[in-house]
Amino acid sequence: MKNPFLSLKYRNFRIYWVGMNLSLIGSWMQVIALPWLTLIITNDPFKVSLVATLQFAPALLFTLFSGAILDRFNKKAVLAFAQIGMMIIAFIFAFMVFTDSCSFEKLLIFSFINGVFNSIDAPSRQSMVYDLIDDRENLPNAIALNSVSFNTARILGPSLAGIIMAVFGVGYCFLFNGVSFFAILISLYFIKLKTEQKAQNSEPLHIFKSIKEGFIYVSHKQILSEVLLILLIIATFVPNYNITVSAFVKFVLQGGEKTFGYMMACSGVGAFVGAFFVASFGKFEIKYIRILSVVSVLLLSCIGLVSNFYYACFVLALTGFAFLLTASNINSTLQLNTANEFRGRVMSIYTLVFQGSTPFGALFAGYFTDKFGAKFGFIMCGVVAAILLLVLFNRKRLRRKIKTRLN
Questions:
Q1: What is the pLDDT of residue 216?
Q2: What is the DSSP annotation of 118-168?
Q3: What is the reported pLDDT for 68?
Q4: Is 255 helix (H, G, I), strand (E, B) or coil?
Q5: Helices H, strands E: what count in the chain?
Q6: What does the alpha-carbon distance between residue 250 and residue 49 come to, in Å, rounded to a whole number?
Q7: Between these two residues, 282 and 348, which has the higher pLDDT value?
Q8: Which DSSP string corresponds to 51-88?
Q9: In b/e form, how buried is each residue of 12-51, taking b as 16+ CB within 10 angstroms?
Q10: Alpha-carbon gap, residue 325 to 272, rounded angstroms
Q11: Are 180 and 30 spatial neighbours (Cβ–Cβ below 8 Å)?
C-alpha cells in the first residue's frame, strides 16, 4: 500500500490540487442546481435531459480542436481562459434566478455556451497533470488524487447544494460556483512550469491534420483503443444521474431538494472511496478494468430494482465506487501509454468520449425515464451497457464465428 497523498510533495501539483478542490465544490453545486431548476420550471424529465444534452454537446464539436491546440500552446493560458468563461456563465445563471428571468430556452442557450468552455477546460486539466509531476511513476497517484478532489466535491457540493437550495434558494448555488472559480485562477497564477510555452515550433498548426494524427496514433495502439471503447460505453449509460436520480427522487421517493442532494452525495461517497483506493494501491491491469466496467453497469441496473431511499443510496454508492475505479484506471492507462507529443490529443479524445457520449446517454435515459419511469430508466441503461461491453470483450470470438459461418 502506497502513501495516497504522495504526489502532493510536488509544489506545482499541490497548489493546483488545492485550488481545483475549492473550485470543484462550486461546480458540483451547479451540477445539482441546474437540473433541479429545469425540473421546477418544466416539470418534465425529458426537458431536463435536453438541458444536459446541450451542456455536453459542445464536447462533440470542439474537444478535438482543444487537444490539437494544447499540444502546441500554453496549457495554463488555455485552462485559465476556459475557467473564466465558465465563471461568467455561473454568474449569468445566478442573475437570471435572482431577477426571476429564467426560462427553459435561456437554460438551453447558456448550458450550451457553458459546454463550449467546458470542452476546452476538461482536456486542459487532464493533460496538465502530467506536467505538474516530476516523476512519471507517480502519475497514477496524481490522477487518483485528482479523482479524490473531484469526488470530495461530489460529496460536499451536492450536500451543500441541497441545504442551500432548501434554506436560501437555488440561485445561491450558481453564485457560489461563480465565486469558487477564483480559487483555481489564483492557483494557476502561482504555478511555475518548466516548459510553459509549446508554441516555439515555427511550423504552422494544421489543426485537422493534427487531429487525424491523434486518431491514427490511438488506433495503432490496442491498449489505448480498447480502454477508450470501454469508457465510451460506460460513460454513455452510467453517469446520467441528473436525469435518472432527479426523476427517481421526485416521482418514486416523492422527495425534494435535500433528498436529491443526499442521493448525489452518496454517489460521490462511493466514488471518493474508489479514488482513494486507486491512490493507495495504484493502477489496475486491463483484465480488472474489464471486470469493473461490467460490475458498474450491473449495479446501475440494480438501482431500478429498489424503492427504498436507503437501499437506493447504498447501491448508488457502490455504482459510484465501481465507475470511478474503472474511469480512473482508464485515465492512468492512457497517460502512461501515450507519448508526450500526443498527450493533448489523446486526452482530448478521452474527454470527447467521456463527455461527448453524455448527450446520447442523456437522451436515452431521458426517453425511457419519461415514458416508463425512473426505475426502468436505470434498468435499461445498465442492461444495454452490459450487452455492449460483452460484445466488445468477445469481438474476436464473434468475428471468428461469423467468418466460419460465411465460409
A1: 93
A2: HHHHHHHHHHHHHHH-S-GGGHHHHHHHHHHHHHHHHHHHHHHHHHHHHHT
A3: 77
A4: coil
A5: 17, 0
A6: 15
A7: 348
A8: HHHHHHTHHHHHHHHHHHHHTTS-HHHHHHHHHHHHHH
A9: bbbbbbbbbbbbbbbbbbbbbbbbbbbbebbeebbbbbbb
A10: 10
A11: no
pLDDT tens digit sequence for 151-169: 677 667 777 887 888 788 8
Quick one: which of 53, 37, 29 has its CA closest to 154? 29
Give the cell for residue 228: 477508450
Q: 351 is written with which cell numbers?
A: 474527454
d(CA 384, CA 377): 11
> What nine digits make up the cell of 23?
473550485
pTM over 0.85: no
Residue keyed to cell 454568474? 91
Q: What is the DSSP letter of 338?
A: S
Residues 206-252 have pLDDT tens digits of 778 888 888 999 999 999 999 999 999 999 999 887 788 888 998 89
Place of cell 435535500: 258
- Chain-centroid distance of CA 103 in Å reads 26
Backbone φ, ψ for residue 133 (5° rounding): -115, 125
How far is the C-alpha of 223 from the C-alpha of 305, rounded, in Å? Answer: 35
Taken in order of first residue, the domains within the chain and their CATH numbers are 6-189+220-406 (1.20.1250.20)
Place 199 in a pLDDT band, splitting at 50, 70 and 90.
Answer: very low
| Helix 222-237 × helix 207-219 angle, to 10° | 100
Lowest-pLDDT range, 102-111, 325-334, 391-400? 391-400
Task: Enter the C-alpha cell of residue 266.
Answer: 452518496
Q: Please check whether residue 362 is in contact with residue 53, taking contact to mean a CB–CB distance below 8 angstroms.
A: yes
